[in-house]
What we know:
Elements: H1 2-16, H2 29-40, H3 62-75, H4 80-109, H5 111-123, H6 125-128, H7 137-155, H8 161-177, H9 185-195, H10 201-230, H11 240-248, H12 259-263, H13 269-278, H14 280-297, H15 299-315, H16 331-355, H17 363-379, H18 391-417
Helix pairs in contact: 1-4, 2-3, 3-4, 4-5, 4-7, 4-18, 5-18, 7-8, 7-9, 8-10, 9-10, 9-17, 11-14, 13-14, 14-15, 15-17, 16-18, 17-18
Amino acid sequence: xxxxxxxxxxxxxxxxxxxxxxxxxxxxxxxxxxxxxxxxxxxxxxxxxxxxxxxxxxxxxxxxxxxxxxxxxxxxxxxxxxxxxxxxxxxxxxxxxxxxxxxxxxxxxxxxxxxxxxxxxxxxxxxxxxxxxxxxxxxxxxxxxxxxxxxxxxxxxxxxxxxxxxxxxxxxxxxxxxxxxxxxxxxxxxxxxxxxxxxxxxxxxxxxxxxxxxxxxxxxxxxxxxxxxxxxxxxxxxxxxxxxxxxxxxxxxxxxxxxxxxxxxxxxxxxxxxxxxxxxxxxxxxxxxxxxxxxxxxxxxxxxxxxxxxxxxxxxxxxxxxxxxxxxxxxxxxxxxxxxxxxxxxxxxxxxxxxxxxxxxxxxxxxxxxxxxxxxxxxxxxxxxxxxxxxxxxxxxxxxxxxxxxxxxxxxxxxxxx
Length: 418
């Protein structure tokens, strides 16, 4: 299954004709960040195309930018070898994700649940479709799966302080790759702590305290760097104002084809000239002010757009500017496949819960982590890519629930036959 998953992802890149080719337009941020980190020794704004701004940026986290820079340093900037290697890393991360969710599902639901989960993760078009991008999506998705695996492992034994400190260090390191999962960290930490019965308040406080300590140890150097350069506390990255603006700008009312074309600096020459003239920090402050003004002027419009984005996130129905995903090709066919796959996951979850309502002690925590993660994007803006990191957890939920429902139906059938 792991080999099939790796082959599907590499085959997708080859069939699309992008293996070894950097994106020419769209998803260029990490390409430029890697180049400039290699050249200037710091993460410089990826929103400014011309290499005229050497001021440090907090728009992107450091880990993946560092990986791109190191790869370019060894194999050449945007060379075919460097790009192919980064894509192969993405494919390998996708294949390892299949292994991790297989192990988690086996531990929670048994052999049948593990195989159903593994198949879902192997063929999931949402997990395959971004393998060719020079972006952190595949590695971050693997990181989410590893986080759940570590939490599940901690729940299976009486973990000591060192284990919880290690969990915190891992979660902090994952935040330096992509901090989006931070909102779900409490559920991944409380899952093993609250799984045992009865709960012990002292063990919960000790576990949470050691985890927070490890997390702080991991993120402190980058946080200090941001404070020194910007004079304010920034949690890993500072792109929220722009993300919020993309979700409330006038173009958000349309089907979304115009949002990135009109509002994103790398896709619009006028916006590019603006951010080049005033700098990244001033640009982000301006977009944040515009976003807050738009929400204050018409709160119900914002509520309506956020509701549509919630539907988008959970069904892949792509009402808003999910349609601007440059990485999906052929666009219409692949988009339809993603939509139907994500909708099928939801239908299977509901159907299996009607058959067997037992969630057990593990699944509610996984579902809570997925739900918490989705809130960030429902409040800002949605793309299919944002659903990918939690798809491993969704695969576990669907696989375990489907296995339990099948066992229930089989047991009832045998009982009625007898």
